[in-house]
Amino acid sequence: MDYLLLFAYGAIFLALVAYVVHLRSRLTEIEKRLADLSVERDLEGDD
Questions:
Q1: Chunked in runs of 10, what are the mean pLDDT values of the chain (47 residues)?
Q2: Which of 23, 31, 38, 42 has a Cα-to-Cα distance from 13 of 20 to 30 A?
Q3: Membrane spanning segments where (predicted)?
Q4: pTM of the entire structure?
Q5: What CA–CA distance (Å, rounded) separates 35 from 42?
């Protein structure tokens, strides 16, 4: 019974770690998009 509980907690922990890694990659992607937009906006303002 203890092994099953340990397995369940381990699975939940791994799922949370995977979700955090996924969120970090999405955040990095959004930051790159915002940086690209700000560069484009700066270039348009220089005209």
A1: 95 99 98 90 73
A2: 31
A3: 6-23
A4: 0.70
A5: 11
